[in-house]
């Protein structure tokens, strides 16, 4: 955990970007090099409604998310970003196609198995924080393990809390915390269970630029320091520029991809998508 930006510093997208081949991060480097797919969608179709009112939100999506990578999903409004993330995270069921988290095929799971998979292997950070207002920050962070009847790993919990700058806020309730602090609590809650993958649906959408920078620095550090795999949906090119890779959706399909993105290169691609929508075949 040396040589990385403090949690409070807004990340410089260029210097914050990965690779970070530190001797202490051998596991992370091995994961990134091997490009093991932690999550995978194959021929994914999602329809809402039926007949004349049917909306095809996902139209044959094929995408993989490699271990130890930070990916941003972007695209025009209504292109299917949230639908894709919700199907990948087991929050919504696809109409057809396959979603795998590691070796587990989500479409083969019943409701109880899906609930257990979401609890044990997936972390989620929402735009609206989704903290329980009557619980303290610490109780919110340990809630998933409490519900599962498990003891949180105290050493890991302490490390996450320290790294996220929350040590002196643990006894506060969400209403006593700023938006940025609340989102850091939500990040801690997601990270403390060591999920296979952490999904963020517009995780900086409700934050000012300083708090947004803090949360992005945390997600970046989670990848670089903890070897976490992170996927976010965002409309903000500066947020997406903190990722290793940007995947672009249009009209329910993956239409482009950028590696080592900058805010400018992302803006260029987005302009292209908004000016010439992809025609359905
Ligand atoms: N519950 C639903 N019922 C019917 N249609 C839906 C539902 N949810 C989403 N859709 C439609 O599916 C399409 C994809 O929606 P989705 O929310 O995934 O897009 P998005 O790219 O996340 O949009 P935004 O950037 O505006 O949040 C849109 O046409 C939307 O209107």
Structure in words:
InterPro entries: AAA+_ATPase (IPR003593), ABC_transporter-like_ATP-bd (IPR003439), ABC_transpr_LolD-like (IPR015854), MacB-like_ATP-bd (IPR017911), P-loop_NTPase (IPR027417). One of its GO terms (molecular function) is ATP binding. Residues 39-276 form the ABC transporter domain. This is ABC transporter ATP-binding protein. It is a single chain. The longest helix is centred in the last third of the chain and has 18 residues, at 209-226. The strands form 2 sheets. A 6-stranded mixed beta sheet has the order 6-7-8-3-9-10, with helices on both faces. A 4-stranded antiparallel beta sheet has the order 2-1-4-5. α5 packs parallel to α7 (179-192) and α7 runs parallel beside α8. The chain has 10 helices and 10 strands. It has helices spanning 13-16, 26-34, 81-88, 111-121, 137-147, 154-163, 179-192, 209-226, 237-240, 263-275; strands at 37-48, 55-66, 70-74, 96-101, 104-105, 122-126, 197-201, 230-233, 245-250, 253-259. It has a domain at 68-89 and 117-274: P-loop containing nucleotide triphosphate hydrolases (Rossmann fold). The chain is globular, with a radius of gyration of 18 Å. The structure holds adenosine-5'-triphosphate. The site of adenosine-5'-triphosphate has 12 residues, from β2 and α3.
